[in-house]
Structures are given as C-alpha cells and as structure tokens.
Prior knowledge:
Structural class: alpha+beta
Largest sheet: 4 strands, antiparallel
Amino acid sequence: MKIGLVDDGHLIPLPLGESLERARVAAQARETRTAKRSTRKVPDDLAPVMATPLAPEVLGDEPVDVGYAARLFAQLSLPYRDPGPSLPEWVRRNGTLELVVHPGRTMDRKTGKTIRAYPYGVLPRVLVTWMATEAVQTKDRVLVLGGSLSEFLRALGLVPRGGTRGDIGRLRDQMNRTLSATMVVSDQRPTSDRIGTFTFADECQLWWSDRFPSEEPLWRSTITLSERFFESIVSAPVPVDLLALRALRGSALRLDLYTWLTYRLSYLRQPTTVPWASLEAQFGSGYGATRLFKREFLEQLAAVRAVYPEAKVEPTEAGLMLRPSPPHVPARRLKRGPTP
C-alpha cells in the first residue's frame, strides 16, 4: 500500500497555491472515481454493513485509495518542529484528553553519539499512517518493510536518495525517534481518571544502505508493533483517503487537520463551535500569539477544504463552527485481512 507522502522539507511547507492546485486535482479525480463507482451494482449482502461508521469504501473486494490513521492521532498530534533534546516532555491537549510524549533515542550523525530526540514533522505521520494501514490490512503486529530499501521508501512516497539531506538519512533518523519514543495518554474528568502508557513498537530490526538502495535487500526488516498500539488501531481504525493525503503533503499541520476533520465530522450530530483556544492547545506549537496560530490554521484549512469539500466548517470569531458532514471516506464495508 503506497502512502505517497513526501518531503517535509525540514518544516518548510509547500506554497499554498501549489497545494490548492494539487488539492483541486485530487478532488476532481475523486469525483470521477465516485461517478464511475455509482454505475456499479452493489451486492445485496452489503446492505447490512453499509451504515458501519468509520469503515472504508469497498465495492465488491476492491478497496479504493483507502488508508488508515490511528484514532489517537486523529485527536492529538506529534510535534511539528523539533522540541530539542533538553525538553523533558512534550504535551498536547484536546479537551480532557492529554498526550505527553517522552523523547526517544537517535544517533547524532555528526558526533556519532546517541542523543535524546523527539519525532517531528511529516515523516513520523507518514510512518504512523503506513503502520496503521498495514496493521488493519494484515491483522498482524509484525510488519514487513518490503523486499528492498528502495521499495519501502517508495511505499512511503519518498525518493531513495542518500546523503546528508537525502530521504534515506531523514527517514532513518525519524524512524529511530518515533519507534523509541514513549507516550502517556490520559483522560481525567471530575468523576473518572484513565491513564495509559505505550510505545509504537516492542521491537524493530531495520537494515539500511544509502549506496545502492534499489539493489540492497532489507533482509526482512520488520517492525513489531506494541500490543497496546496494535489493538488501538485494529479496534477503531480511522479510514483516510490516500489521494487526499498525497495532495496535502508538505505540511504536517495540513495532514493533522484533514485526519481530525474526517474523524470528528463522522460522528458529529449537531453544530458545534470549537474555540480558538482549544484549537491552539490541540494544534498550536510555538506561535507565540493566538492571532498568528489562527492565520496559519486558516491558511492550511483552505487546502484541506479543497480536497474535502464535503466538510461543513466555518471559521467564526469564536472558533471553528463544525456542522454534521459525511466522512471523507464513505462508510461501506470493512475489508477484512487474514485471520490471525
């Protein structure tokens, strides 16, 4: 399954004009696919499951550009910029839900020493989407990265290129940061407390070469997802349109906004306004002033709405008005993977 997201550009987002053009192309392509699918007869036995919430669009046995996001990261986000090794923990909040990220470990390629390091930017989001998609499709905690390094890079939408600024080095660094980080999730309310700790993976075996990535086998490089993370994915996956994610590449905030909206709107039953202060606590990072966050938020929201025109959202002085809308991936039937 190809995720097709590339180039966090070291946190330099694509120009909005270019993003919107890609978004318009993606939306047009999606409308064309929908029109073609509408002429196909849906088997009668699909009727009981057509209304299943958060299920991917599948006609017959053919999945259509469907990937999966982890539900937690449809509600909370990883860092957009590098918090640096001196920060003891990184916190994000969404209502009563709180995510605390403790840094993992990666090697400083300049000094050769292992340092504390946070996952940040587009690449961890690409990786988590790939892991979630593979877990849902295979129903297996052990994920195989592919036959070669080049194949895995292309599955993530990256260019098999080495060097200090190549995708191979950046992916290796962000995979180490992501797979070794520890997360604490809590939901504390007046009458209840829920707290859990998890990592993405129990174990990973990764083989790397930046000399001949197209020829170097990955020697069955694998990632073994932690049981808690795996169960959280397969028990409540959030379907996402991979074509939309491709159109929104280049900005981690765009990816988070798209995933949040398609999840949040899927169960919304009445209009609600999310205050700007709450949005800043959930998505803001180092803006210094709410007005600066609001300006960036609205700019990236415009790109998301271009690929997800069904989303009924309206910025107001108080916050973002959300109205009941269809999820971006219409509910049809969950394609079952192999039985464990």
